[in-house]
């Protein structure tokens, strides 16, 4: 332990976050009530055997010159691509290690291990088989809690991959023919979610705001892909999930959005965790990983369409869905720095997970450690950490309405099927004019929700025609049908219409 502390003190710029107490309860009575059956289900889904090995995943080979680094990632969780799918594809980490190996006289070998979700990745970290991994905020807390009492596999949160400060990476969708228009309409229905996930917390928070609790629905714990199939098979009334599953169902014409997690205003994100002892013994390897992650992040932000196409090719996910999240003004902001709002969000999520029995106490001030990413950024870290501006803002010139779209709240984008680039528009109304003027097939069109600015598919939005608005602002898109109806009711002369009617009304 003394040696470990000495190594930590030797690292430049080491800094710990103080824990931010957040007295926020997810239920009106300050707790989350679940049946004993649900609690047992939670244990089955989230419980990970606390078995640790004395060996770390990274070690020298028989010749003492080859070092294996084990990286865990989730290929289809597209807001971790900068620490997983895209990072692996670009070979940036291997390139960093090759340079490091030359300097140290070693050969580094990277073993990439793909996981469907965070819990099995955590199990492998507990077994000493993963040195660095990426997962969502709720699984990260479970990871930190499960590993904290085992010095050889104790983990720490060292960087962020992608985030949404509103929480719009978690959403609830229902079948297209569902009569539900608000969360209150889910009372008594079966709702599928990944128990213990941030999406589960979003569901609890949303129900609480609607005057309900989790006991008012029949909660069914399922992995995202299983829940998506259950929704399409009419086995559940709603699906509460995280990126990219809700919008994939919307894009495929299998569901419509009922509730956006951004309504709660609680940030959600994915991040990188590392074996603390491994980092102390191999700080240059961790630094190389985060250097490669930063380079991959810069590439994605500078070439969002090319990155989305490549991720789609690798994962089999629709490119249109990947670009919804990862494109300019997308639902995900890619930035490795650890921001105070994200740490605060962990403090909000922690009591919810404790109420489920998914974890015990976790000191966030010890668990969150930005010393590696701080070293990667150098003097520019504090500025980058403080910024929440979109790293890849939508910019360009509107070819139909005219004018620049840079920084405009209504900025929209269309991806025509016969082009290798996208076109921008100043407003959703101008976007519809472009689509009509072009006359060709549209691969995807993206507009911001009128009330929240959340990026959504134009073709699946609910539109409102407001004749009292300006000529370039008469057609307003909404992600939630109830929000569109509320706007129309408050603006005499307005009418709720569908996408096809909006195209004709441009």
Summarize the structure.
The protein is 38% helix and 19% strand. It is an alpha+beta fold and 506 residues long. It folds into 3 domains: 44-165 and 267-378, 3-Layer(aba) Sandwich (D-Maltodextrin-Binding Protein, domain 2), CATH 3.40.190.10; 170-263, D-Maltodextrin-Binding Protein, domain 2 (3-Layer(aba) Sandwich); 412-504, no CATH class.
Question: How would you portray this structure in words?
Answer:
By secondary structure, the protein is of the alpha+beta class. The protein has three domains: 44-165 and 267-378, D-Maltodextrin-Binding Protein, domain 2, CATH 3.40.190; 170-263, D-Maltodextrin-Binding Protein, domain 2; 412-504, no CATH class. Helices cover 38% and strands 19% of the residues. It contains 20 helices and 19 strands. The chain has helices spanning 2-10, 36-46, 85-90, 92-104, 118-126, 137-147, 198-209, 224-232, 245-251, 276-281, 283-302, 304-315, 319-326, 340-355, 364-367, 371-377, 381-386, 428-438, 481-490, 499-504; strands at residues 59-60, 66-73, 107-114, 132-136, 155-164, 170-174, 190-193, 218-221, 238-242, 256-260, 268-275, 333-334, 412-416, 423-425, 442-448, 455-457, 462-465, 475-478, 495-497. Strands 1, 2, 3, 4, 5, 11 and 12 form a seven-stranded mixed sheet that branches. A five-stranded mixed sheet has the order 8-7-9-6-10, sandwiched between helices. Strand 7, helix 7 and strand 8 form a beta-alpha-beta unit. Helix 4 runs antiparallel to helix 11, helix 5 packs parallel to helix 6 (137-147) and helix 11 packs across helix 12. The protein is globular. The protein starts with a helix and ends with a helix. The model is unreliable at 1-57 (pLDDT under 50). Residues 165-306 form the SsuA/THI5-like domain. This is ABC transporter substrate-binding protein. InterPro entries: SsuA/THI5.
